[in-house]
Design goal:
Blueprint: H1 10-19, E1 23-24, H2 25-32, H3 36-48, E2 52-56, E3 64-68, H4 70-90, H5 96-123
Antiparallel strand pairs: 1-3, 2-3
Helix pairs in contact: 1-4
Protein backbone atom coordinates (compact mmCIF):
# COMPACT_ATOMS: atom_id res chain seq x y z
CA UNK A 1 0.00 0.00 0.00
CA UNK A 2 3.01 2.24 0.47
CA UNK A 3 3.65 2.45 -3.27
CA UNK A 4 0.03 3.61 -3.66
CA UNK A 5 0.54 6.15 -0.85
CA UNK A 6 -2.38 4.72 1.14
CA UNK A 7 -2.66 4.09 4.89
CA UNK A 8 -2.33 0.47 6.10
CA UNK A 9 -6.03 0.37 7.04
CA UNK A 10 -6.82 0.64 3.32
CA UNK A 11 -5.46 -2.86 2.62
CA UNK A 12 -8.14 -4.89 4.43
CA UNK A 13 -10.90 -2.62 3.10
CA UNK A 14 -9.66 -2.98 -0.45
CA UNK A 15 -9.25 -6.74 -0.08
CA UNK A 16 -12.81 -7.00 1.26
CA UNK A 17 -14.11 -4.97 -1.67
CA UNK A 18 -12.18 -7.08 -4.18
CA UNK A 19 -13.80 -10.16 -2.63
CA UNK A 20 -17.29 -8.62 -2.68
CA UNK A 21 -17.99 -5.08 -3.76
CA UNK A 22 -21.06 -2.98 -4.41
CA UNK A 23 -21.65 -2.67 -0.68
CA UNK A 24 -22.63 0.29 1.44
CA UNK A 25 -20.19 2.24 3.57
CA UNK A 26 -22.29 1.13 6.54
CA UNK A 27 -21.66 -2.52 5.61
CA UNK A 28 -17.93 -1.82 5.80
CA UNK A 29 -18.30 -0.10 9.18
CA UNK A 30 -20.08 -3.18 10.50
CA UNK A 31 -17.64 -5.64 8.90
CA UNK A 32 -14.55 -3.98 10.35
CA UNK A 33 -15.98 -2.67 13.62
CA UNK A 34 -14.48 0.77 13.11
CA UNK A 35 -16.05 4.19 13.26
CA UNK A 36 -17.75 5.77 10.26
CA UNK A 37 -15.13 8.50 10.00
CA UNK A 38 -12.28 6.03 9.58
CA UNK A 39 -14.13 4.17 6.84
CA UNK A 40 -15.16 7.41 5.11
CA UNK A 41 -11.59 8.80 5.16
CA UNK A 42 -10.11 5.53 3.95
CA UNK A 43 -12.63 5.26 1.13
CA UNK A 44 -11.93 8.88 0.18
CA UNK A 45 -8.22 7.99 -0.12
CA UNK A 46 -9.03 4.90 -2.18
CA UNK A 47 -11.35 6.95 -4.37
CA UNK A 48 -8.72 9.65 -4.86
CA UNK A 49 -6.27 6.93 -5.91
CA UNK A 50 -8.78 5.67 -8.49
CA UNK A 51 -9.32 2.33 -6.75
CA UNK A 52 -12.99 2.67 -5.73
CA UNK A 53 -16.04 4.68 -6.63
CA UNK A 54 -18.78 5.78 -4.27
CA UNK A 55 -22.23 6.57 -5.58
CA UNK A 56 -25.51 7.45 -3.90
CA UNK A 57 -27.90 4.51 -3.81
CA UNK A 58 -30.86 5.15 -6.10
CA UNK A 59 -33.32 3.53 -3.68
CA UNK A 60 -32.02 5.19 -0.52
CA UNK A 61 -30.21 8.49 -1.00
CA UNK A 62 -28.73 8.26 2.52
CA UNK A 63 -26.65 5.24 1.42
CA UNK A 64 -23.36 5.38 -0.47
CA UNK A 65 -22.54 2.26 -2.51
CA UNK A 66 -18.86 1.37 -2.90
CA UNK A 67 -17.43 -0.52 -5.87
CA UNK A 68 -13.88 -1.26 -6.99
CA UNK A 69 -12.52 0.07 -10.25
CA UNK A 70 -10.69 -1.73 -13.02
CA UNK A 71 -7.49 -0.19 -11.66
CA UNK A 72 -8.09 -1.98 -8.35
CA UNK A 73 -8.94 -5.23 -10.16
CA UNK A 74 -5.63 -4.99 -12.02
CA UNK A 75 -3.81 -4.85 -8.65
CA UNK A 76 -5.70 -7.83 -7.23
CA UNK A 77 -3.06 -10.50 -8.04
CA UNK A 78 -0.32 -8.40 -6.43
CA UNK A 79 -2.44 -7.65 -3.35
CA UNK A 80 -3.37 -11.31 -2.95
CA UNK A 81 0.31 -12.26 -3.18
CA UNK A 82 1.08 -9.79 -0.37
CA UNK A 83 -1.71 -11.33 1.73
CA UNK A 84 -0.40 -14.88 1.07
CA UNK A 85 3.15 -13.89 2.06
CA UNK A 86 1.87 -12.28 5.27
CA UNK A 87 -0.27 -15.32 6.04
CA UNK A 88 2.76 -17.54 5.48
CA UNK A 89 4.86 -15.52 7.91
CA UNK A 90 2.15 -15.52 10.57
CA UNK A 91 1.51 -19.23 10.36
CA UNK A 92 5.09 -20.42 9.83
CA UNK A 93 5.61 -23.68 11.71
CA UNK A 94 1.88 -24.38 12.08
CA UNK A 95 0.55 -27.72 10.99
CA UNK A 96 -2.49 -27.72 8.71
CA UNK A 97 -4.58 -28.84 11.68
CA UNK A 98 -3.25 -26.00 13.88
CA UNK A 99 -3.90 -23.48 11.14
CA UNK A 100 -7.50 -24.66 10.71
CA UNK A 101 -8.07 -24.59 14.46
CA UNK A 102 -6.64 -21.08 14.71
CA UNK A 103 -8.88 -19.85 11.88
CA UNK A 104 -11.94 -21.35 13.57
CA UNK A 105 -11.01 -19.61 16.85
CA UNK A 106 -10.49 -16.30 15.05
CA UNK A 107 -13.86 -16.62 13.30
CA UNK A 108 -15.58 -17.25 16.63
CA UNK A 109 -13.75 -14.30 18.20
CA UNK A 110 -14.89 -12.07 15.33
CA UNK A 111 -18.49 -13.22 15.79
CA UNK A 112 -18.22 -12.38 19.50
CA UNK A 113 -16.75 -8.95 18.70
CA UNK A 114 -19.55 -8.20 16.22
CA UNK A 115 -22.19 -9.21 18.76
CA UNK A 116 -20.60 -6.98 21.39
CA UNK A 117 -20.34 -4.12 18.86
CA UNK A 118 -24.04 -4.40 18.02
CA UNK A 119 -24.92 -4.37 21.73
CA UNK A 120 -22.83 -1.24 22.24
CA UNK A 121 -24.43 0.44 19.26
CA UNK A 122 -27.91 -0.31 20.56
CA UNK A 123 -27.20 1.51 23.80
CA UNK A 124 -25.09 4.29 22.35
CA UNK A 125 -24.05 4.90 18.76
CA UNK A 126 -20.28 4.54 19.26
CA UNK A 127 -19.61 4.26 15.54
CA UNK A 128 -19.94 8.03 15.35
CA UNK A 129 -17.06 8.60 17.77
Amino acid sequence: MEQLDLPPVAFPLLMRLLHRDDVSQEDLVNDFLVDKGTVARTLANLEESGLVTRVIDEDDRRVKRVTVTEKARSLEPELKAVARRWDGRLTAGFTDEERELMLSFLARMMDNAKLYWRELCETEDRREA
